[in-house]
Amino acid sequence: MEIKTEAREGYTLVVLTGESRGRKASGEFREACNKLLQSSQTARLVVDMGEVPFVDLHFLSELDIAVDACRRRGGDLRICKSQPYIKCILQKRSGLDIKQFNTEEEAAFCR
After folding, report:
1. β-strands 11-17, 44-51: how paired?
2. What is this structure's pTM?
């Protein structure tokens, strides 16, 4: 999985590309989120999953942890552009209410 980040006004965009299989990929996601939360002015992350065809349970666990970390800092983590498989698995699996949106703008600015 490739991870790119870009600071935007009021939030940070995290663009994920490729599959997330195993602890290495999920660990890289965790490290990226931790760095962003420690160094950023905001605890608002928008994760673009439009180019992610598959995630495993390791990734889902790290995603839950990242959502919780954002919310404890007064922010949130939102998903945008996810494929149908990802939307379905997040709705069924996640212990947290992870908000999903069709576009980056909706994820960043909708309440």
Report:
1. parallel
2. 0.91
The three-state secondary structure class of 104 is helix
- Over the stretch 76-87, which tens digit does the pLDDT of each residue have? 999 999 999 888
> Into how many domains does the chain fold?
1
Q: Is the dihedral of CA 79, 84, 87, 90 positive or negative?
A: negative
What is the token pair recorded at 34?
A: 């931790």
CATH of the domain at 50: 3.30.750.24
Question: Does residue 30 sit in helix, strand or coil?
Answer: helix
Region of 26 on the Ramachandran plot (φ > 0 left; ψ -120 to 50 alpha; else beta):
alpha
Q: Could you list the residue range(s) of the whole structural domain that residue 99 is in?
A: 2-109
